[in-house]
């Protein structure tokens, strides 16, 4: 029935319906990087990126100059790939950039607005450029501004807004047309803690609505950790880590951090005989993974035998910071950041 | 996503046709443009000339009125190609002033506010963005040049009869093409300058300056090399040559012979000039400047 209605509307008005566009294959990843490379003036910026991203919220991490923003711009069609390609919802960025952009909302990193317009006018203009009819665009602009918390300030000119309000206005224009994928480039840049918290809340709400995927580019690990379930770490134009944070957290459930006093060498040797993997993280601390059948009481028993005091013992998992730092240190591995391995210092 | 619901909801309604989206840009620009009383007043003044000329055409065919005023308008102001050429020349002069008033901030404002990524991350190409910005001028200039010009032609045809219209159909063509050459030149030039010059006053000055400098350069080359080909750099002469050829009145401004250009050369130069503007726009209108 929906299709019939859509067809009638198209015939009558010569319009298309975004939500009724032919869907890509159901299993198509949100973003599929297929050997994507970008070169500026002979200098490679992105090198042979490969991978499939399927998460509801994907964190794009990397140090400054790693190529995060270039990747977003290339996916948006601002830069042409020098080789390879990428697909968004199954559509090729080389040939179907315009169709892809109907499905995407973009919140740029830098201040981007039209200074002498009221915010509602600005957001409405952006909605109309995305293809919404004038009345629907106005309605959605009001809704989007209320949604992000700028309802009371929507008739003020964007140029008069504070930094936090400008960020929210940028978010409003990115979601006003109801995109299926939202690119957020450093959305918490320059925000004070309450404003940052508000932004994070909004991103989580959109993620939890299940109606849109989010690609969050940031160098703030906490933002990504709070919002994202999948991460992609880029370094010098290469993907160094691509993993699902949720799965990482689940797989690291038996990861222990222990602080000891006494003869640690004999203690770790005894632990190794139990088949546990361990890593010495500092003079008095070590991390270890309990093998099946090994329990905490066994650790205390060994510590007693070796005359070692266990001062602190916590169940921990690799934090995003650990994963990130490891990726930055050794260039990482193409898949999930691993657990500490035996003898790793 | 109703105001009171506060949940994210995708848009599921109809979309406008893709070809029409660039027209969103002029529609929103006019809100800003017509908020200036100075501009609105000037725009209204642009219709005085068409009104006066419509009255002249009417008086031409009203023997009673001519008897009352005791004038013979048919001899004084004949309705012919020159009548319409004067109209186009006068109105394009006003169009130039309109362009100076509203052209300079068209793109520069977006560049200054880094708004280009917001336009270009939507289903809108760079070409559509430029055409949208040019449309702001094209629509307004059309409203004061070829549209009233053609209406005057229709009015005259109605009063004079179908025979006159058939004999002078070329005038309608000349009004249309003559106006559009100016429209394209002014719109493209204005958008290009706006893309390269950030300050409004400087951009307005550049628009004036381009015509003055090109005139001076043309005269200089003609004088130094004792040739007429220096006029190829003179935008005013190029446009006048094209206009004269369209209205079948060679050298209507009585330029000295050594300044007059062949029509084909004028068209080629105009084409090259417009091409250069497009090239400059292509280099400048990008979502992000790539530092190589």
What can you tell me about this protein's structure?
The complex is a heterodimer of chains A (345) and B (292). With 345 residues, chain A is α/β, with parallel strands linked by helices. Chain A folds into 2 domains: 31-245, Rossmann fold, CATH 3.40.50.300; 254-316, 2-Layer Sandwich (Alpha-Beta Plaits). Chain A has helices spanning 2-13, 68-76, 97-102, 119-129, 134-148, 163-175, 193-209, 221-227, 245-251, 264-273, 296-305, 320-330, and strands spanning 16-17, 31-40, 43-53, 57-61, 83-88, 91-92, 104-107, 181-185, 213-217, 230-235, 238-244, 255-261, 277-280, 285-289, 309-316. In chain A, strand 5 and strand 6 form a beta hairpin. In chain A, helix 4 packs across helix 5 (134-148), helix 4 runs parallel beside helix 6 (163-175) and helix 5 (134-148) packs across helix 6. Chain A is elongated, with a radius of gyration of 24 Å. Mean pLDDT of chain A is 82; it is low at 1-25 and 332-345. Chain B has 292 residues and is an all-alpha fold. Chain B has one domain (21-284). The model of chain B has no long low-confidence stretch (mean pLDDT 89). Chains A and B meet through helix 1, strand 1, helix 3, helix 4 and helix 5 of A and strand 1, helix 1, helix 7 and helix 8 of B.
Produce a short descriptive summary:
The complex is a heterodimer of chains A (345) and B (292). Chain A has 345 residues and is an alpha/beta fold.
Second CATH tier, the architecture of the largest domain in chain A = 3-Layer(aba) Sandwich
Number of domains of chain A: 2
Number of continuous helical runs of chain A: 12
- Stretches of chain B where pLDDT falls below 50 for ≥5 residues? none
CA-based shape of chain A: elongated
Biggest β-sheet of chain B, characterized?
none
Succession of helices and strands of chain A: HEEEEHEEHEHHHEHEHEEHEHEEHEH
Number of beta-strand segments of chain A: 15
Please identify which CATH superfamily of the largest domain in chain A we are dealing with. Answer: P-loop containing nucleotide triphosphate hydrolases
Shape of chain B: globular
CATH class of the largest domain in chain A, named Alpha Beta
The residue ranges of chain A in which pLDDT falls below 50 over 5 or more consecutive positions are 1-25, 332-345
Please give the number of β-strands of chain B.
1
CATH topology of the largest domain in chain A: Rossmann fold
Widest β-sheet, arrangement of strands of chain A: 7-8-9-4-10-11
Secondary-structure content class of chain A: alpha/beta
Q: What kind of oligomer do you see?
A: heterodimer
The helicity of chain A comes to: 25-40%
Cα radius of gyration of chain A in angstroms: 24 Å
Cα-to-Cα separation, first versus last residue of chain A:
64 Å
């Amino acid at each position: 029935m929906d299709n019939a209605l859509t067809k009638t509307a198209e015939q009558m008005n010569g319009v298309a319906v975004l939500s009724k566009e032919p869907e890509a294959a159901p299993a198509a990843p949100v973003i599929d990087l297929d050997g994507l490379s970008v070169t500026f003036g002979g200098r490679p910026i992105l090198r042979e990126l490969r991978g499939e991203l399927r998460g509801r919220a994907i964190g794009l991490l990397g140090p400054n100059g790693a190529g995060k923003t270039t990747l977003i711009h290339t996916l948006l069609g601002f830069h042409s790939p020098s080789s390879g390609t990428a697909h968004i919802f199954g559509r090729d960025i080389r040939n179907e950039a315009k169709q892809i952009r109907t499905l995407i909302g973009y919140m740029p990193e830098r201040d981007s607005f039209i200074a002498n317009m009221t915010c509602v006018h600005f957001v409405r203009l952006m909605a109309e450029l995305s293809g919404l009819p004038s009345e629907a665009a106005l309605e959605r602009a009001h809704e989007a501004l209320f949604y992000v918390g700028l309802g009371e300030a929507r008739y003020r000119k964007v140029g008069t807004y504070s930094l936090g309000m400008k960020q929210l206005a940028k978010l409003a224009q990115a979601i006003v047309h109801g995109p299926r994928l939202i690119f957020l480039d450093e959305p918490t840049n320059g925000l004070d803690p309450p404003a940052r918290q508000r932004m994070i809340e909004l991103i989580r709400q959109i993620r939890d609505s299940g109606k849109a995927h989010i690609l969050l580019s940031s160098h703030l690990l906490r933002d990504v950790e709070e919002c994202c379930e999948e991460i992609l770490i880029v370094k010098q134009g290469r993907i160094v880590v691509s993993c699902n944070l949720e799965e990482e957290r689940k797989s690291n459930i038996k990861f222990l951090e222990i602080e000891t006093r006494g003869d640690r060498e004999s203690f770790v040797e005894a632990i190794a005989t139990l088949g546990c993997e361990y890593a010495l993280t500092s003079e008095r601390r070590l991390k270890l993974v309990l093998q099946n059948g090994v329990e905490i009481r066994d650790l205390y028993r060994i510590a007693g035998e070796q005359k070692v005091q266990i001062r602190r013992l916590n169940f921990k998992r690799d934090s995003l910071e650990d994963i990130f730092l490891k990726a930055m240190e050794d260039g990482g591995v193409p898949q999930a950041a691993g657990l500490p391995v035996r003898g790793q210092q | 996503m109703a105001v009171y619901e506060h949940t994210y909801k995708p848009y599921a309604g109809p979309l406008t046709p893709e070809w029409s989206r660039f027209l969103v840009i002029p529609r929103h620009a006019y809100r800003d443009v017509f908020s200036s009383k100075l501009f609105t007043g000037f725009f209204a003044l642009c219709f005085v000339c068409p009104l006066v000329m419509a009255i002249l055409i009417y008086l031409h065919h009203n023997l009673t009125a001519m008897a009352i005023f005791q004038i013979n308008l048919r001899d004084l102001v004949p309705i012919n190609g020159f009548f319409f050429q004067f109209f186009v020349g006068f109105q394009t002069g006003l169009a130039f002033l309109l362009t100076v008033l509203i052209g300079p901030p068209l793109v520069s404002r977006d560049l200054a506010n880094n708004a280009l990524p917001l336009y270009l991350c939507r289903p809108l190409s760079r070409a559509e963005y430029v055409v949208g910005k040019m449309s702001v001028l094209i629509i307004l200039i059309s409203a004061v040049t070829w549209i009233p010009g053609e209406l005057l032609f229709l009015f005259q045809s109605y009063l004079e009869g179908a025979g006159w219209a058939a004999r002078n159909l070329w005038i309608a063509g000349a009004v249309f093409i003559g106006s559009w050459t100016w429209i394209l030149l002014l719109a493209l030039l204005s958008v290009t300058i706006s893309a390269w010059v950030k300050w409004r006053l400087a951009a307005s000055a550049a628009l004036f300056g381009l015509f003055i400098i090109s005139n001076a350069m043309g005269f200089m080359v003609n004088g130094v090399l004792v040739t007429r080909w220096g006029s190829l750099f003179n935008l005013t002469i190029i446009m006048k040559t094209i206009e004269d050829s369209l209205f079948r009145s060679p050298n209507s401004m009585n330029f000295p012979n050594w300044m007059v250009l062949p029509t084909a050369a004028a068209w080629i130069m105009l084409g090259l000039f417009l091409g250069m503007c497009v090239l400059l726009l292509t280099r400048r209108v990008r979502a992000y400047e790539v530092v190589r």
